[in-house]
Here is the input.
Amino acid sequence: MAQLKRIKKIKKIRLHREGTHILITSALLLLLANAAIYWGIDMKTPFYVTATVSLIVYLLMVNFFRCPIRLFEGDTERMVVAPADGKIVVIEEVDENEYFHERRLMISIFMSITNVHANWYPVDGVVRHIDHHNGRFMKAYLPKASTENERSMVVIETPQGHTVMARQIAGAIARRIVTYAEVGEECFIDEHMGFIKFGSRVDVYLPLDSEVCVRMGQRTTGNQTVIAKLK
Here is the structure.
């Protein structure tokens, strides 16, 4: 019975708090626009078309701000889980020059407009550093997006002494990165790290000897898919 309740809890979906203001404002604007068309035009065909388009757009926005409640089942020690829903677009060694100033293993997840855009902490640990960089808004899947787009980094030290960075990156449409982490606080895999509005990407920087558990093009589920294991 307890296991059944746990499964039901994991499948529960609610709307993310970051979408409350946008959804309310959008609903009011769409209602006003459709009301103006309905009362201002004798022919009702344009109204029906506009109303249908408005409903589809609004449902897409609701879908974007959905926030499933998930719990990682299993031992989290040395595990690195996907911080976001999306697709693996990069698995390679890179020179990370903003914080580590050394070579690191980078795994990148690209989020499309249809993905859940809540971000989870990739590891358990303590937040050691947070930084935000203003930048451009190129397409998030481009290699230069990691260092030239607007971005926010969260550096976490695990209980075993590993240091992992999660970098939220804005895309061509995204215009706001929200980060909830605070320096010095404990963080856990099941907790939200932040939110990126309207499409983007999350990079995870790991020690070079980490064991990669995903492949290029693989779909990930935030807080569920194990992307690597720390030595």
About this structure: The chain has four helices and 16 strands.
